[in-house]
């Protein structure tokens, strides 16, 4: 099994929690005091490209709420009400710019929320060094796919998004998530996109199954309505119940999540990995199954995926990659995306050894 990397307070020297978000002393609200988007004052996060590369983090299926609003720039909401853009700067660092803050105390909270969302307490470099020592193929891919970070999302947002993702495609998932988001308070527009707070459970409870079906949710409408009802009935509230799953063992978290309407093992694993600190959760679908049978369990190649074999696949990832197996699986999944496969193949063609091997053994492209 791979050695377990430590989790230092931060991968590099990060801004202190009390540092001002912007050079201006006054908080900003884009609804009343807009600043031209073409000339924002980007504040560096002091995160190298190997710790966070935006194109390998945001458009890769972890979240459907963030939008690309410029060249290597993505915009979304953190802490439920802080509208922020992130941009990969020329020096490789990531800069941030808050479009919407309402007070000095909110500004401090916004930065804390951003750092929490980006999971900066985990050193990606250190985690990947452990992976590379355990798997030569991962070491080959890591050279080209640095900075693919796993996010730490709001559990309710993550839960609703992945119920929408079940047996669905990216375009339709995004449409559904945009509709749900539009039920929350409006925060502003960036790059032609409108952004909202994610609606509260109370607001979601006001939406009927018929309304969701009319908006194109299909059978998922009843699951969302049922899940919201279940969460509202939880002692202490749904947010408290979900947050508590960050402190239990993974099997207990999966069982608890699967008690909600529309949540099966794969969706539960996605929620656990992307919002509940269950870093070794492995969302097993046909794409991950192909990766596993190609590299980790070749003896199962040609067989069909079953619930029992899903557990075997997850165990194989954990045996190979250890405590952060879900992070390794995420990179391997990204490597199979059409855009990344094209990039990897292009890189390999320029390699002097290109006639001898295929980089990382990638030979197939999964359907999205």
Automatic annotation (TrEMBL):
GO terms for biological process: base-excision repair, AP site formation; nucleotide-excision repair. It catalyses: 2'-deoxyribonucleotide-(2'-deoxyribose 5'-phosphate)-2'-deoxyribonucleotide-DNA = a 3'-end 2'-deoxyribonucleotide-(2,3-dehydro-2,3-deoxyribose 5'-phosphate)-DNA + a 5'-end 5'-phospho-2'-deoxyribonucleoside-DNA + H(+). The keyword DNA damage applies. Coiled coil: none annotated. Its EC number is 4.2.99.18. Belongs to the type-1 OGG1 family. This is DNA-(apurinic or apyrimidinic site) lyase. It comes from Solanum tuberosum (Potato). The lineage of its organism: Eukaryota, Viridiplantae, Streptophyta, Embryophyta, Tracheophyta.
């Amino acid at each position: 099994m791979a050695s377990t990397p430590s989790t230092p307070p931060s991968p590099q020297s990060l801004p202190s929690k009390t540092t001002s978000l912007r050079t201006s002393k006054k908080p900003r609200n884009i609804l009343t005091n807009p600043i031209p988007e073409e000339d924002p004052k980007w504040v560096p996060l002091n995160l190298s490209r190997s710790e966070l590369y935006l194109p390998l983090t945001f458009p890769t299926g972890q979240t459907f709420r963030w939008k690309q609003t410029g060249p290597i720039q993505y915009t979304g909401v953190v802490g439920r009400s802080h509208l922020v853009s992130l941009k990969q700067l020329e020096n490789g660092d990531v800069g941030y710019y808050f479009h919407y803050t309402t007070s000095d105390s909110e500004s401090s909270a916004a930065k804390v929320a951003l750092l929490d969302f980006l999971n900066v307490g985990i050193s990606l470099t250190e985690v990947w060094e452990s992976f590379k020592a355990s798997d030569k193929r991962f070491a080959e891919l890591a050279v080209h796919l640095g900075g693919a970070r796993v996010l730490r999302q709001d559990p309710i947002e993550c839960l609703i998004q992945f119920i929408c993702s079940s047996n669905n495609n990216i375009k339709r998932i995004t449409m559904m998530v945009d509709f749900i988001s539009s039920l929350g308070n409006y925060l502003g527009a960036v790059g032609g996109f409108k952004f909202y707070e994610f609606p509260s459970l109370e607001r979601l409870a006001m939406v009927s199954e018929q309304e969701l079906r009319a908006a194109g949710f299909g059978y998922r409408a009843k699951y969302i309505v049922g899940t919201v009802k279940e969460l509202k009935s939880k002692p202490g509230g749904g947010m408290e119940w979900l947050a508590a799953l960050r402190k239990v063992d993974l099997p207990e978290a999966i069982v608890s999540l699967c008690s909600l309407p529309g949540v099966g093992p794969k969706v539960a694993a996605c929620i656990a990995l992307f919002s509940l600190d269950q870093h070794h959760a492995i969302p097993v679908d046909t794409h991950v199954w192909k990766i596993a049978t190609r590299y980790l369990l070749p003896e199962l190649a040609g067989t069909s995926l079953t619930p029992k074999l899903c557990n075997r696949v997850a165990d194989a990832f954990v045996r190979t990659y250890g405590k952060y197996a879900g992070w390794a699986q995420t990179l391997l999944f990204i490597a199979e995306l059409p855009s990344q496969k094209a990039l990897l193949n292009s890189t390999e063609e320029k390699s002097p050894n290109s006639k001898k091997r295929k980089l990382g053994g990638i030979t197939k492209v999964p359907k999205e």
